[in-house]
Specification:
alpha/beta; Rossmann fold; DNA polymerase, domain 1; 2 domains; 7-stranded mixed sheet; globular
């Protein structure tokens, strides 16, 4: 039933420290790979809430009375838990990034392997697509997202080329974008294109903003001792998670109480991020950049 191979599957489930009668949240349900393992570890009185804004994920929701599927972005974590009558949970799992299924569906526009419309929306009801960004963002805004989210070395040159090209013709398809980008490639073409597409996808879906909101809400809904487990694939996201576990905010700003004592929201259970074994990286290319961090709420 799962259309997506879960990364660090057994490690993530072990990290959650699942209690048979506990309540857990998988905020990136996807194909249900991690969710199935959580359900297998739960008893009859356990409960799992699965979030995913991608309509395709709803088709893969397991038929299980202990599972509640929420078809919304995980930035609304607290709101929908409240609607379900849940005030506290024992664990929150987030596997960030794009699923194998989304990459393989040509019409979604996530991969440069297919020539289709420049979409990249995880939520198909969202208004802004990748094509809209290329058509409306200023040169400075484009340079910013390519430089920050994609770490594209010639972000300024790329932004200038896009603004110049769209004055002649719109960039509507992946083929349109590739024709523009290919002469500008620095280094290996697949890596460069992956960086460009990653930057656009992160902007289209406001992935950084959504992650910040979800992390802040996770601290509010976790019980003392509850686990936060996050698998990140991008240096920005991993840094946000690392800072949040240490300080309670994604900026990494140390907070102190009235007496000058440093506020520590979590016991950090991963001094260094956990990465997949070489065999998993070989079998699942998506796992190569994965880093998992774990915290237990104090």
């Amino acid at each position: 039933m799962s259309y997506h191979i879960p990364v660090l599957a057994s490690d993530a489930i072990e990290a959650l420290g699942i209690k048979p009668d506990g309540t857990y949240v998988d905020v990136t349900y996807g194909g249900g790979g991690h969710a199935k393992l959580i359900l297998d570890a739960l008893g009859d009185n356990g409960r799992l809430i699965g979030f995913d804004q991608d309509a395709d994920a709803a088709q893969n929701a397991w038929k299980d009375s202990r599972l509640t599927f929420v078809p919304h972005n995980f930035r609304f974590l607290k709101r929908f838990l409240r609607l379900e009558g849940i005030k506290e949970v024992d664990g929150v799992l987030a596997d960030l990034g794009v699923s194998s299924h989304q990459f393989d569906e040509a019409e979604r526009g996530f991969s440069f392997r297919f020539d289709t419309l420049l979409d990249m929306r995880m939520n198909q009801q969202a208004e802004k697509s990748a094509a809209d960004i290329l058509a409306t963002y200023t040169e400075a805004e484009l340079q910013g997202i390519f430089g920050e989210y994609g770490e594209v070395r010639n972000a300024r040159t790329l932004a200038q080329a896009i603004v110049k090209e769209r004055q002649v013709r719109p960039l509507r398809s992946i083929g349109d974008l590739l024709a523009l980008v290919d002469p500008l490639v620095r280094g290996q073409r697949p890596r460069y294109l992956a960086q460009v597409f990653q930057a656009l996808r992160m902007e289209v879906n406001d992935e950084v903003g959504a992650l910040k909101e979800m992390l802040e809400q996770s601290l509010q809904v976790l019980k003392p001792g509850g686990r936060l487990v996050v698998i990140a694939y991008h240096s920005i996201e991993d840094r946000m998670v690392k800072h949040f576990l240490k300080t309670g905010n994604v900026e990494g700003e140390v907070q102190q109480d009235f007496y000058g004592n440093i506020t520590r929201p979590f016991e950090i259970l991963t001094k260094k991020a956990i990465v997949p074994a070489a065999t998993e990286m070989k079998d699942n290319s998506r796992a190569r950049s994965a880093k998992m961090r774990i915290g237990a709420k104090l």
